[in-house]
Recover the amino acids of this structure.
């Protein structure tokens, strides 16, 4: 069983720790229908991207800032969280990790992401980086660099767990090692990651001295 030693784990949220896709995709469908934009195109590109970047790709004729705010507000107002679930093994894994050894880095609206964590009774990370905290989001390197800095760790000593090409590019350009999970994208779309597993439950996290040891069930 292959393994990685690291000082900290940096997790994307949606598609890695929780499955919120039904909520996001419902609101993307409404947004697309109201503006006569291709919903299929949105599905192809939105994973792991800030909302404004998705809009720039699928609807360059629209104001990305205003439209992103409209989309974010519709998501934040959604209280039908029964459609959201955590992936198997996630609650136990996060509770067993020391608070200074993990962070969440998400392109989701901060208010909705925090509401999701609370609803699912998941631990709140010491370092939580959302799309509102970074001027330039994924696939730029800054979100993961900011998380490593917040944990007082070098990015080279961190392992990122991602599910989307934009997030993988972000982590790779930052200088982190990457484990990708196949929850929202095909293996071909995730090939820039260092390792590929089905989902987070395929990871076993222990300690190797002062370092984390992440074993992978490939």
């Amino acid at each position: 069983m292959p393994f990685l030693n690291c000082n900290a784990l940096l997790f994307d949220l949606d598609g890695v720790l929780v499955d919120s896709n039904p909520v996001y995709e419902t609101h993307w469908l409404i947004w697309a229908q109201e503006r006569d934009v291709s919903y299929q195109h949105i599905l192809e590109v939105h994973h792991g991207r800030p909302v404004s970047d998705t809009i720039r790709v699928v609807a360059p004729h629209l104001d990305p800032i205003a439209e992103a705010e409209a989309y974010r507000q519709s998501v934040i107002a959604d209280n039908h969280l029964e459609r959201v679930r955590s992936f198997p093994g996630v609650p136990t894994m996060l509770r067993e990790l020391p608070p200074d050894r993990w962070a969440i880095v998400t392109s989701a609206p901060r208010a909705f992401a925090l509401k999701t964590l609370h609803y699912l009774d998941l631990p709140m990370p010491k370092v939580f980086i959302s799309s509102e905290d970074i001027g330039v989001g994924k696939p730029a390197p800054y979100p993961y660099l900011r998380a490593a800095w917040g944990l007082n760790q070098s990015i080279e000593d961190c392992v990122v767990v991602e599910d989307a090409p934009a997030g993988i590019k972000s982590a790779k350009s930052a200088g982190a090692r990457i484990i990708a999970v196949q929850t929202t994208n095909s293996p071909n779309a995730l090939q820039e990651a260092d390792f590929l597993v089905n989902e987070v439950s395929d990871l076993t996290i222990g300690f190797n001295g002062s370092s984390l040891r992440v074993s992978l069930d490939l």
About this structure: Helices lie at 21-35, 39-45, 51-58, 64-76, 90-96, 110-119, 142-150, 165-174. The chain has a mean pLDDT of 92. The CA atoms of residues 18 and 87 lie 6 Å apart.
